[in-house]
Amino acid sequence: xxxxxxxxxxxxxxxxxxxxxxxxxxxxxxxxxxxxxxxxxxxxxxxxxxxxxxxxxxxxxxxxxxxxxxxxxxxxxxxxxxxxxxxxxxxxxxxxxxxxxxxxxxxxxxxxxxxxxxxxxx
Length: 122
Fold this sequence. Notes:
There is one protein chain. The protein is mostly beta strands. Helices cover 0% and strands 52% of the residues. The chain is built from no helices and eleven strands. Strands 2, 4, 5, 6, 9, 10 and 11 form a seven-stranded mixed β-sheet that branches. It has a four-stranded antiparallel β-sheet with strand order 1-3-8-7, with no helix packed on it. It is globular.
């Protein structure tokens, strides 16, 4: 059974950087697409970035484009989210997810991690 575990969250000041990791046990790439989502208190879970592990194609939401970068290390079966120029509005629980459709629609993902908290102070 495939499972994913996120790590790398923490507290940083605005303008700082963090790198989130999503480690998979089992073959996460049995699902073609892997993505990062986030959910702030009282808000809907929103897609941040997605990667097609077959083509290497990526898409980043407008709110993070140019600041966040999704990447993968196939040898380590690990997905990353490099987050630079962090803003207080980036504060949220960040989740890794896997599915078979290249999308940031959360309903299309059926494998989720437990999340890692990111807090950005001004």
